[in-house]
Each structure stands twice: as C-alpha cells, then as structure tokens.
Design goal:
The complex is a heterodimer of chains A (324) and B (304). Chain A is an all-alpha fold and 324 residues long. In chain A, 67% of the residues lie in helices and 0% in strands. In chain A, helix 6 crosses helix 10 (201-212) and helix 11 (216-224) runs antiparallel to helix 12. The two termini of chain A are 20 Å apart. Chain B has one domain (70-303): Orthogonal Bundle (MetI-like fold). Helix content of chain B is 76%, strand content 1%. Chain B is built from 14 helices and 2 strands; from the N terminus they run ααββαααααααααααα. The longest helix of chain B is centred in the N-terminal third of the chain and has 40 residues, at 14-53. Classes of the chains: A mainly alpha (324), B mainly alpha (304). At the A-B interface, helix 1, helix 3, helix 6, helix 7 and helix 8 of A face helix 2, helix 4, helix 5, helix 6 and helix 7 of B. Chain A: Residues 117-309 form the ABC transmembrane type-1 domain.
Chain lengths: 324, 304
C-alpha cells in the first residue's frame, strides 16, 4: 500500500504489512471525507461564534508554530550573516544591517565542512547499503526459509530492543577498538559505523513482519518454476516490499545522520569526523557568526531531505512508534 | 497404521534430507551477515557490560575480578546521587513538557481545517535537525547577554535569566532544548491515533450533552489510551539516556547540576579512565531501563 496521509496508518498499518498483489497504487492523497469530524462538530463551525473561535485558534496556532519552529531557523540564517559586532548588540536587530555573504564560504573553509559532509554521507550510505543487504536477507531467511533454531535467532535479535544503546556504549566501544577473536581495531574506519548499524533488532522486526504477510502462494509459484531462494528474494519478495524497504532505508540513513555519541567515540580523528561531531568539536574556537553559519549549513541537507521524503519519513515515524 | 506414518515421517528419504540440509545452509548463508553484526556489536557487548562492571582493567595488565568494588566506588562518588537525581528530574520535567504538549498540539491540530500540512511539516522540522546542531543553536539562544531568550524576555519586561549558568535554570534549559527537538514525533503519532477515532463516538457524546473537555476526557483519552501508554514508556526510556544536552551545553555543571547518569558513565570511562566504574553505572542504568523496555514491548505487542 502506498504511504498515504498520516490518518490512514493508525487504523490499517499499511506500511508494516504486505500488499495484496493486485492493488498497485492508491491515489497519493485522500481528501478529508465529509464524514470526518473531530472533537468539534461541523455544525458548530458554521455558527458565527464557532467561526470566530475557530479563526482565533487557527491564527494563534499558526503564529505560535511559526514562532517556535520556523523563527529559530530564520534567526540562525540572519544571525550568520550579521557581523560579530551586530551579533553581540543589545537589543538585537531583526534584519541584519549589512548582509555578510562571505560568512558561508568562511564557515565552509574554517570548519572544513566539505570534508565532514562527505564523511557523513559516506557513513550514511554505507550503513544504508549494509543494513539493506544483511537485514533484508536475514529477515527473509527467518520468515520464509525457516531454518533450524530460526525462532531462537529471532528472539535473540529482538531481545536487543530491550537494551537501550547508551547502556552498552562502553563495551561496544571496547569491542570496536579490539574486535574479539579477530583483534581488528575499527576505530577511525567507516566500518565502526556501518557494521553496528546492521545490528538493529527493530529493522529485523519490521522486515520480518512484512515478509510474513506476503502470501505463501506467491513464493510457491516461483519455487515450482525452479527459482532459487536468492532469485525469489530478488524478483518476488523485494518488488512487493517497496514500502517497508523505503521505511527501513530512511530510518537507517536518518539514524546515522543524527547520531552523535557513537561517532564521537569511534571516529575521534578530526579527518574522519561526522558533521555533528566535527562542528561541535570546533565550536569553541570559532567566531559566533561563523559557527552559526556552519550550524545552518549542517541543517540544510536534513531539511532538504525532509522536504523531499516527507511522506515516507512520516510513514516511518508511525511504523517506528508501534514497535511491537 | 498410525505408527507407520510416524515412522515414515521420521525416516525421511535421502532426497528430503538433502533438501532440508541445503535449505538450512541457504538460510544461514542469508543470515550470516546480520548474525555476525549482532554477535559483535550487540550480543557480545551486552555480556561484556557485565564483565566490565565486575572487573578492574587498564587494558595493559590482565583484568582482575573485583566483585562489587566498582559499584562501591561509583556510589561513593558525590556526583552519583546528583546524576541520578538530575536524570530523574530531567525525565520528569521532560514528561511534563514533552509528553503533554504534543498531545495538546495533536488535539488542536486535528480540529483545524487550514494549513494542515504546513503545521505538520513545521512541527516535525526540528526532529530532522541533527541533535548536535539543535543543541548548539540553543546554546547561542541561551547566551545570557545578547541571546534570543533573554532578549525576548526583555520585551515583556522579564529576566534576564542566567539559563545554563545557574543551578536553578540549567536543568530546565536542557529540558527545553530536548523538548523542542523531539516533540514533533509525539505530535504526529498522536495525530495519527486521533484520526482513527470514529466520529460516531464524538457525535454520541455531544448528543449526551458532553462539553469540549468532557469529550476529550471521555472519548479522546480512552480511545488513545494504549498509544499514550506506549509513548510514555518510550519517552521515559529515551530521556533517561540523556547525554548530548549536558555534554554540549554544560559539561555537567554548574556544581554537578546537570550531570546525568549517561554523562557520568562517559566521564568515568573517557575522562577518569575508570572503565569498571563506567561499566557499573551502565549496568545500573540498564537494569532500570530494562524494566520500562520490557513493559513497553509487552504493551505494544498487545496493540498489534
């Protein structure tokens, strides 16, 4: 099923169960039907008093939300373009007196943002690839091939959901520093981000639940035609699993992009830092306006990605909230 | 006859055995990548967490079992009580703000008929920012001199507040950042839950003469009870791990006023080099959080 508006999901959880094959794509957005109502009845809203209250609340919400969530971004953007003196001025100016466009290049060079952004992109892309390759294969094996001890493996993987990441931070760091048996040191290598990203019980859970709901007949038909398990995964399972793959992809990338503590520990080399860690490690030495410009530059990719993938991100959000 | 079939099924033909072996081999081939990752980066660290907290180690000499000595050291630390008190206070304050506000937002947003997608988008925007960026942004807003917050208070003739520099407001300041960057998630999840409430329930309640607040109390809340509970547990688990806010904003100060358990754990390992003490703190936090996680998993399984 498609990622439709937020309202569908709570009732039907379409993202987390497989589509019936014949239903391809629903219209992307459904209009609110006339039957919809919330707390306030549609009738109340047609009265003059109802209308006045509605518009008062409406404007209040609009102003508050804009002030709380958009204004900080505006303040960040204009703050970056003010001169350091203007920035320290009391009371502050709403519009910058002079626009200092040079600050963007300055921040880019001083903080080496290009390097940090490239690093972060590399970490996110690798984590995404490994997560998809390993977790999809694993969930498929657990769901459809059902090997001996498969239930135990699944239980062990899901049990990691009970352990919040922070509490095993130290032993995980020690493991990455000196991998048991192999003795490898993964610090300052992308592997320190990529491989731990795969060990995500929630992804296994989401994928397996989705694969479980793919009708058996679909796979049996391919099996009778002599398709190998890999072939079945590639040509039958994956094409119908696009929604859940989308959700897992986005969660995997966003997790790496937003993470701070783990890259802080395992990538201490300033050449290898992710954008969040890089900016915060240099923040103390930077002039205020340059730091703010860097913060703004670091927010741009996240905002752009969000605007593009809004629908899937919000779909992933509800899938994420109903772990279980 | 029946014994025959049992025997027959037990003694499979060679072909069936071979097929089953090959199916298992294929399955474990598919599982291998994930299994290796889980083994190294999830299961082994869990076990190591226990080992770590009962050992003394400097990574040069062989580690030494010391029983509960690490726990004793940590508990004796004057920061220990502060860390737990601050973590509890942070969690509580974050609940007051971060738990109620999104629910109220969702209820209000659900009634509005205009600019719906704009409002939804905007409330989720901070969630997309990398937390470090949001936290550093607020560090600037909290600046006691020209910071946005003191300037805004000044417009109303209030303040100035010392924000991060005073023991009275530091922890609250951390809660504000944390709430700002996370409340979009809750809002959108509640919004989804609210939209699944059948209209008839509201109509019936209205016919029975229930006012606005009575409708919230008797229809909205009972209908979203489960998701409210799930989110409550989820938020407790998430906020008790608070680290990045004290790490970037206050460094635990002033006067240990914002030291949290996770931050103290980090300090023990990376600043004091006492990994056993850090492990002990981690284990204590784990035991507390596992209770909430277990209840959470139980509750959310019932839902789906």
């Amino acid at each position: 099923m498609s990622y439709s508006t937020v309202r569908d999901r709570a009732t039907t959880r379409p993202v987390t169960s497989a589509p019936t094959p014949q239903r391809t794509r629903r219209p992307r957005r459904r209009r609110e039907g006339p039957q919809f109502r919330g707390l306030v009845s549609p009738h109340t809203l047609t009265t003059t008093r109802g209308k006045i209250i509605y518009w008062v609340v409406m404007s209040f919400v609009l102003v508050t939300f804009t002030a709380a969530f958009v204004f900080p971004l505006y303040w960040m953007f204009t703050g970056a373009m003010k001169s350091p003196e203007e920035l320290a001025q009391v009371p502050p100016t709403f519009f910058p007196e002079t626009l200092n466009w040079g600050v963007w290049a300055e921040a880019w060079d001083l903080l080496d943002l290009g390097l940090f952004l490239r690093n972060t992109l590399l970490y996110a892309a690798g984590a995404w690839l490994f997560t998809l390759a390993f977790d999809v294969a694993a969930a498929y094996a657990l769901s459809k091939l059902r090997p001996v001890l498969g239930k135990l493996v699944l239980a062990l993987m899901l049990s990691t959901l009970m352990i919040p990441p922070t509490v095993i931070l130290l032993p995980a760091y020690l493991t990455v520093k000196d991998l048991p048996i192999l003795g490898w040191n993964l610090l300052n290598t992308p592997w320190a981000i990529w491989l731990p990203a795969v060990a995500n019980g929630f992804f296994i859970f989401l994928l397996k639940r989705f694969f479980d709901s793919i009708p058996r007949e679909l796979l049996e038909a391919a099996q009778i035609d002599g398709a190998s398990p890999l072939r079945i995964l590639w040509s039958v399972v994956l094409p119908v699993s696009r929604p859940i793959i989308g959700v897992v992809s986005i969660l995997a990338v966003v997790n790496v992009w937003k993470d701070f503590v783990w890259p802080l520990l395992v990538l201490p080399d300033s050449e290898k830092m992710s954008i969040s860690v890089g900016i915060s490690s240099l923040s103390a030495q930077m002039p205020q306006n340059v730091l703010i410009a860097a913060l703004f530059i670091a927010s741009v990719p996240a905002i752009v990605v969000f605007l593009i993938f809004q629908r899937s991100i919000m779909a992933g959000l509800t899938a994420g909230s109903l772990k279980g | 006859m029946s014994t025959m079939t049992v025997k027959g099924s037990r003694r499979r033909s060679p072909g069936a055995t071979r097929r089953s072996v090959s199916r298992n081999l294929t399955a474990y081939g598919f599982l291998s990548g994930a299994l290796i990752c889980f083994a190294f980066f999830s299961w082994y660290p869990m076990i190591r967490e226990f080992i770590l907290s009962f050992q003394k180690t400097n990574f040069i000499d062989p580690p030494e079992w010391v029983g509960f000595e690490n726990f004793a050291t940590v508990i004796d630390d004057s920061a220990f009580v502060s860390a737990w008190a601050n973590t509890a206070m942070f969690t509580l304050l974050a609940l007051v703000f971060g738990y109620l506000v999104p629910f109220v937002f969702a209820i209000v947003l659900n009634e509005l008929r205009h600019a719906r997608s704009y409002l939804r988008l905007v409330v989720y925007l901070p969630v997309m920012l990398p937390p470090a960026v949001a936290v550093l942004l607020f560090k600037w807003f909290y600046d006691p001199g020209a910071g946005l917050f003191n300037q805004a208070l000044d417009v109303f003739g209030l303040g100035p507040l010392a924000w991060l520099d005073s023991t009275d407001t530091a922890l609250l300041s951390l809660v504000i950042v944390s709430t700002w960057m996370n409340l979009g998630t809750g809002t959108l999840i509640y919004l989804a839950a609210l939209q699944s409430i059948p209209s008839e329930l509201y109509e019936a309640a209205e016919l029975d003469g229930a006012g606005l607040f009575k409708r919230v109390w008797h229809v909205t809340i009972p209908q979203t009870k489960l998701i409210l509970l799930v989110m409550l547990l989820l938020q407790i688990v998430a906020t008790m791990q608070v680290f990045i806010e004290p790490f970037l904003l206050t460094g635990g100060g002033p006067e240990n006023g914002t030291v949290t358990v996770a931050y103290l754990m980090y300090q023990y390992a990376f600043s004091f080099g006492n990994w056993g003490g850090g492990g002990a703190l981690g284990l204590m936090l784990m035991l507390v959080l596992i209770v909430f996680s277990a209840v959470y998993l139980r509750v959310s399984r019932d839902r789906t």
